[in-house]
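Below is one record:
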Amino acid sequence: RRMTLGDAALDAKVADWLAWDKNEKTRGEIEALVAAGDVDGLKARMNGRLVFGTAGIRAPMQAGFARLNDLTIIQVSHGFARHVKNVFPGESRGIAIGFDGRYNSRRFARLAANVFMRHGIKVYLFSEVAPTPVVSWATIFYKCDAGLMVTASHNPKEDNGYKAYWSNGAQIIGPHDDEIVRIAEAEPQPRDEYWDESDIEKNALFNSADSCIDPYFEAERQFCYKRETNASTSLKFTYSAFHGIGYHYSKRMIKEYGFPDSAFVSVKEQQEPNPDFPTVPFPNPEEGHKVLTLCKETADAAGSTIILANDPDADRLQMAEKINGEWRVYTGNEMGTLLTWWVWQNWRAANPTADASQVYMLNSAVSSQIVSTMAAAEGFKSDVTLTGFKWMGNLAEELRAKGKTVILSWEESIGFMPGHTLDKDGVIAAAMFAELAATLATQGKTLEEKLFELYTQYGFHLVRSSYWMVPSPAVTKELF
């Protein structure tokens, strides 16, 4: 029977939802709201658009066209698949698909894979959770037309996300993002066959993405500069995956950099994926002391002086150092300053006569501009983008296409892109910061002492930044 809520547009959306949604749970959510006459609740879920923001689409996992669920994942994937076919009309080179450890992430990834294969697009799907940067790498490694990572990164546990990559391995920007959404909204009714992901492995277009994992480590191992120093260090690094997916990857990367097993101490309570994030009030290591309690306790018990913590999808890295009995949590700008110096020193040592004017480092407009100060002093180039690695990744590719060398990109929100991927990578960042700390230790220096040396050398740079939580995209749009 037709429900009448006193709003014709809302009535139509509810009717479409109940006709199209084949997930009993989310259908039940809408039916319950209709039965209760909860017009405001229905409007919140039904009105609004799912669009690509700074790092893809992110929204709560609930029923409704303005939320992430089976139906909207299928709709966006339909738009994505149609756009890929429009741009690359020949034989499909495929799409790489990964997922994190959140609720529904594996199912969303499989539903998306099914939609792409129904469009004749080859799929490379990881068999288990994989860090976001490894999906960017897979897109490049398999020479795909596109990539997809199902993750909400460090958002609250109620959320999930849809992060799209283009053929270059960088996150999509215009016109691709707008066109995907346009098609999804113009052709919203899903085909019946989109819903059944149970036998996708039997499809001739299905491929495992797991074969790109070993080459990922082999490629990123090239950025290890001090293997002998790493192998002999007495430092211990306390590592946390933050209930996410970084543990096995970061542990292996640090081992690939030559560190002994004794140098790696895991926060066991946060080691494996847990979508409830039970030991932290907010699953974001950037929050600092209030979310690093277990990390500090584990480090103190192990005699460790460095904490390295990935966010849940392992594309970002937080670092803390124990100095005179107190833990100092580094800001993203401070970490970026240290890494800028470290990468530059090692690049120059490896290329003593090369023209530095063809070498670039990038960061975003909200990040410290100490990079430009260092560039002016040392002779390399710097450039600034809008907020987000979708801009830095695409600019890095543009510069490389012109024959330039981009050796690092970073942003103040503890994101660093020093390797082969065209998105931030907390896995290689963990190994590189460990190597930096181990090298400084041979000189009797802490990370803080080196940071102050850099300020003395190049000039002190200070950034004060904060943020507001705005649950409604409409309010954010109005504010801007």
Q: What stands out?
A: DSSP finds 17 helices and 15 strands in the chain. The CA atoms of residues 155 and 179 lie 26 Å apart. The first strand starts at residue 57 and ends at 60.
